[in-house]
């Protein structure tokens, strides 16, 4: 960026960073009091940003930096996320389970999107809810949002309601072990296919047993890898809808730069070209940039708009999750997982 551009965006970026630091501090307090982060810092950042926006409307001085944080910093964070993903997880899972996970994700995407549209959600918000439900909750919503050009209010509401339901799932899912007569292996697969975030998978499986934890984490990691193909597909679809079908366009024009970077870093990670020491530096930076971006999204939320769609989003997320659980149980029975 030029010096003028830096001076123009600095106040807004600093504001978003301050909200992000406050959110991280509140997560630390939450972990200290409850033993686990029921609401992650990125969700807290959205809530703090929305609260601040309700009490105070940032003027022109803050707008450029807030916009830069919500778009560019989020894109950088998505790109860096690729460094944490290794394709080795796919090879470890085996072809049968991989195909099953892909089918579950595809069916859940279609069902969730259909439910969202049936309930009257805008197309972009329905896509966000579907991706968050089918793949990996907040991370999927954050990754898909810049690709489809989602509005800040859509992103914030999707993440907020998905996060709340995610906490409920962690608490309630273990009840299916006695109710559905699930073995530890079956429950591990179910948790990996339905719980939104990797830390939440651990929270939902550790009380059940080590086998459930190990298998649930593996299935969840493979499910997260489905984010790459989904984002690329949405990117191609969004560009074609915006510009019209243009055969012969180069890959670089069809797929955003940050998705190319994401896939490149994932490949380097899979090949062992990214040392663990470097990863220990990259991932905290990625997390912080994501939280800063969420704070910026919160600062762009109009609570009146959020209130209008809240009930429909809650119902869409809930129904989508129930469908995902049913599909996952069906896969477990179909594959004959013991």
TrEMBL record:
Superkingdom of this protein's organism: Bacteria
Record family assignment: Belongs to the UPF0324 family.
One family name in Pfam for this protein: Cons_hypoth698
Keyword Lyase: no
Subcellular location field: Cell membrane
Chain ranges passing through the membrane: 38-56, 68-91, 97-115, 127-149, 155-177, 189-212, 218-238, 250-271, 277-301, 313-335
Protein name: YeiH family putative sulfate export transporter
Keywords annotated in UniProt: Cell membrane, Membrane, Transmembrane, Transmembrane helix
Record keyword Cell membrane present: yes
UniProt membrane topology term: Multi-pass membrane protein
PANTHER family for this protein: INNER MEMBRANE PROTEIN YEIH-RELATED, UPF0324 INNER MEMBRANE PROTEIN YEIH
């Amino acid at each position: 960026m030029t010096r003028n551009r830096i001076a123009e965006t600095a106040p807004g970026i600093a504001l978003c960073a301050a909200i992000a630091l406050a959110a991280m501090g509140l997560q630390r307090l939450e972990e200290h009091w409850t033993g686990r982060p029921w609401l992650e810092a990125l969700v807290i950042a959205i809530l703090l940003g929305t609260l601040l926006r309700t009490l105070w409307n940032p003027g022109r001085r803050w707008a450029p930096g807030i916009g830069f944080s919500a778009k560019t910093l989020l894109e950088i964070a998505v790109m860096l996320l690729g460094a944490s993903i290794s394709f080795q997880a796919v090879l470890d899972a085996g072809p049968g389970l991989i195909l099953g996970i892909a089918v579950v994700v595809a069916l859940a995407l279609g069902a969730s999107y259909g439910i969202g549209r049936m309930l009257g959600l805008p197309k972009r918000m329905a896509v966000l809810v579907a991706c968050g439900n089918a793949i990996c909750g907040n991370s999927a919503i954050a990754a898909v949002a810049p690709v489809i050009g989602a509005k800040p209010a859509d992103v914030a509401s999707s993440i907020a309601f998905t996060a709340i339901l995610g906490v409920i799932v962690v608490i309630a899912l273990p009840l299916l072990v006695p109710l559905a007569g699930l073995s530890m292996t079956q429950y591990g697969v179910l948790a990996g296919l339905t719980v939104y975030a990797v830390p939440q998978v651990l929270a939902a499986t550790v009380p059940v047993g080590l086998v459930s934890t190990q298998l649930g984490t593996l299935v969840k990691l493979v499910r997260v890898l489905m984010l790459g193909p989904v984002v690329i597909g949405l990117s191609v679809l969004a560009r074609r809808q915006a510009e019209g079908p243009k055969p012969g366009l180069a890959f670089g024009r069809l797929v955003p730069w940050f998705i190319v970077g994401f896939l490149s870093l994932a490949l380097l990670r899979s090949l062992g070209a990214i040392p663990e020491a470097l990863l220990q530096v990259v991932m905290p930076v990625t997390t912080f940039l994501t939280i800063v971006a969420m704070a910026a999204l919160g600062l762009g939320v109009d609570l009146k708009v959020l209130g209008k769609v809240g009930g429909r989003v809650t119902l869409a997320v809930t129904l989508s999750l129930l469908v995902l659980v049913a599909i996952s149980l069906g896969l477990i029975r179909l594959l004959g997982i013991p």
